[in-house]
Amino acid sequence: QVEQLPLQRLQQDKAEIEAQISEFGKIKSALSTLDTAVEKLNDKSAFDAFLANSGDDDVFTATATSEASETNHSINVLSLAQSHRLASGVFASDEAQVGEGSLFISSGTNNFSIDITSDNDSLTGLRDAINTAEDNKSVRASVINVDGGSRLILTALNTGLANSIEISVTDDADGNDTDASGLSSLVYQAVGVQNLTEVDAAQDASLTVDGFAVQSDSNFVSDVIGGVTINLNQVGTAELTVERDIDHALSAMDGIVSAFNTLAGTLDEVRLQGALGSDSMLYGIQDQLRAVFSSVPSTFDTKINQSFTVGFDFSREGTLSFDAEDFKAQVSEDFTDLMNFFTDATHGLGARLTQVLDTYAQVGGIIDSRTDGLQSQSRTVDDRIEALNIRLGSIEERYRQQFSAMDALVGNLNSTGTYLAQQLANLPGATFNSGS
What we know:
This protein has helices at residues 5-39, 123-132, 247-273, 280-294, 324-333, 335-343, 349-361, 366-425, and strands at 50-54, 60-64, 71-79, 83-87, 101-107, 110-116, 139-146, 149-159, 165-170, 197-200, 205-209, 212-216, 220-221, 228-232, 236-244, 312-314, 320-322. By secondary structure, the chain is an alpha+beta fold. It has three domains: 2-46 and 247-368; 50-80 and 205-244, no CATH class; 83-200, no CATH class. A five-stranded antiparallel beta sheet has the order 1-15-3-11-12, with no helix packed on it.
């Protein structure tokens, strides 16, 4: 047992080192979580966001980007943009032959051609040939079976007058490229032959913004109000309001509060119960982070002198909190100054918190250095334990050999005693008391 005491002490040292490494891991994880939350403070998009609202979503909806500005406008939707749709004459069935030749189709800036032969000159054959044409980016074909027969329907994929469909034919098998029979029955020109029926006319959207006329080939109007896209839904009038969207910023603040308090709880737990005990680094982390919240560099050109002004505060127990109303008050007073207070690349709250966090948590930082040192100690202890185990093994083997030798000697002595007792018992007149 005495020989085992050094081994037991080394095993205790090993366990303590491993516990310290584990606790450094917990601290680094909590620091990394806070660092991730702080990253949002370094991104102006969390602050420079806008929300577009419609007074009537049935008339239009709207979205805004960071390029928008706070504003409001009256939107009067007069008509919606519409896709061009054409229908062929009626055929006996969807397998009825139309005619052979070459089709040339255009819509907007997209043009493509199709060769029609006896293999694909039915309505379904034409439909499939149009839809699978490699250069077709603008028209979709379908076949409908209605009372009286079947019709080929052609629909422009894009709305607006500029995307009207035009169709011409060459090499019609009947020798006439414009008549209403054979493949030329599908000819349609804006000005000229129109052998197809116009089901829906191509149409631009028409609207007014604050009384000024706007035409758009799409119901998604994005080039009228900077940073705002209006999605037109129906004819009508509604008010468009664009305002700052601070929800992203408030969410970022809540994330920082949650991550900071988790870190503070981890540090308290380690100080009170952990193997690191009262390691000065545990106090240094929290003190340095609190100092960032409590002060602003004198070289930073801002009206905000501390983070408490914008809603952050610490309780007596060291818990961080955030008051959204204080933040909103600063938004109304000077939003640009507020955004710079958080996002300035050098002096902003995010940048200064990141600097502290990186000192401890980045690769090669203080925690990595401390952990590397402990791992080195752990390897040293492992080597000592291995050497001691070898030594104890040798001692145990020596004791085993000595015991075996003593056991053999005792056995020999017992055998000799038994022999002598037998010999004495055989002597004439001798008496032998085996118990004496």
